[in-house]
User: What shape does this take?
Amino acid sequence: MKESLSYSFLSERDAPLSPAGFRKTLARIGEASALPFPVHPHMLRHACGFKLANDGHDTRAVQHYLGHKNIANTVRYTELAAGRFSNFWED
Assistant: This one.
């Protein structure tokens, strides 16, 4: 039996998927989904930031998690997640 590899993505040949292979696969998924824009891996990073902000995680914690040196790069996730502030003044 083959030893378990510690890679997140494997090719159909059970080899580690290269960064280029992952980009191409993700682009094909975007095309197959009929999205009106090209899809690239960095979008997953943005989606992660928006998800964390929408779930109400602390902006500084999101900054640290995403590795942003400048908080201004992280704040845009919370600015676009205005709905998370809708219940601030309700009991």
